[in-house]
Amino acid sequence: MAPRPRKRASRPTKPRAGSRRGGGGGEDDPFFESEPKRRRGARDEDIESEESDDDAVAFGGAVDDDGDEGVEEEETVGEKKMRMAKEWLKRVEDAAKRREDDDEDEDEAGGRGVAEILERRQLEESGRKRRELAARVLPPEPEDGFKVIVKHRQPVTAVALSKDSDKGFSASKDGVIVHWDVESGKSEKYLWPSENVLISHHAKPPLSAKRSKQVLALAVSSDGRYLASGGLDHHIHLWDVRSREHIQAFSGHRGPISCLAFGPDSAELFSGSFDRSIMQWNAEDRTYMNCLYGHQNEILTMDAFSKDRLLTVARDRTMHLWKIPEESQLVFRAPAAASLECCSFIDDKEFLSGSDDGSIELWSIMRKKPTFIVRNAHPSVDCDDQELPKENGIHKPENVSMAQSWVSAVAARKGSDLAASGAGNGLVRLWAIEPDSKGIRPLFKFKLDGFVNSLAIAKSGRFIVAGVGQEPRLGRWGRVRSAQNGVAIHPIRLEEEKDDL
Questions:
Q1: What's the pTM?
Q2: Strand 226-231 relative to strand 235-240: parallel, antiparallel, unpaired?
Q3: DSSP string covering 383-415, please?
Q4: Radius of gyration (Cα) for the chain, nearest Å?
Q5: Span 454-476, pLDDT tens digits
Q6: What is the pLDDT of residues 218-252, one digit of tens each?
Q7: Distance between first and last Cα of the chain
């Protein structure tokens, strides 16, 4: 067989300008353009960009004197923090100057005053030093009084304030949840989603034909992002505060949700129920974390001082202080013939409780019994009709209406010596907590008709908010027809301090 003749190699040709080596639709590739053409195109682009300065201005750009387009600078997060820190330091320096003595050196006194103020504020914020507010409370003016800023059709069962106390939340027995501004009183309602949406948010189908919307408890996270509500449908409902939309339903309790509390500076949420259990959730991750057992009857109220400390009260006449990381608890038993109804932290070592016999108790972690008791703190007899029994006197049930003398709500400005209590006798009372658990001293009384089902004191200590209803929070065994269902606010006048910021 004859060999195949070898194919003659073709002579390479010089590629033309504007063509791709190897061909194939690359005639427009600028890589293969000749140098003069690329430079000419760049000059054309430069001329075009100079002529488009007016367009830049039209679209919001800024053009400086040299014709260059400028960009409007915005304040970064770091710059904002630096500016706020400088403003706060300026206020501290001004407060220190007001304290300095005339005969001292200005620089030395000012520097020492700033250090003292910063140290005191740091101790107060960390809870190692109690802020003294009670001594600064002034008598109310004649024009002062409770003013209803939000009206509800049914009795209000819960109120909650944001961390900076500029916004508030309230809920009532008809399931209405309202978000309101403290200063202006402007309010907006939260709308419940349909049953299909609730089930898609992991809620279990209702046992009856219609889901109960009655709300018994509210809690708002410290960052102001989440609002939690609980009630008769055995679910904890999580809401987005910014959009006021329902985002999650936590199921697990077998009874009504009676109380809720967020851990300070934490997304951890605690819930208490009539099923005698306490559950721990994470609002950020939308997950269940833990379940705590210890109470032998329905849990009524709770309060959280930190994500590691929780205080609960139940109908078993006990109050439990839970140490979450250690998984342990301290049990405090109510005095004889009394059932605890509400509780509130004062600081990490002391707390308050209110009882159904009209008493207010001061507790310490060092003792299993109250260190001080104010008996008959809310008698149902009006001051104008009969002389009120003295504090620490003998409580006589036959002389007072038990339903109206029950201490249904207590609140304290955490980390301070200022506290308040409410009942159904038409009064909200302010109290001063003496240091070293020495006692409770009465301050002033504010008139308010109706059952005070919830209380909250502002972080500044300058006002108090009360959730009021014609009926008690957990029943209908009493009724005050003259009361207005809603949220009422009362100013607390404080004497100005020289180092107030």
A1: 0.74
A2: antiparallel
A3: TTTSPPPPTT----GGGS-HHHHS--EEEE-TT
A4: 33
A5: 999 999 999 999 999 999 999 88
A6: 999 999 999 999 999 999 999 999 999 999 999 99
A7: 109
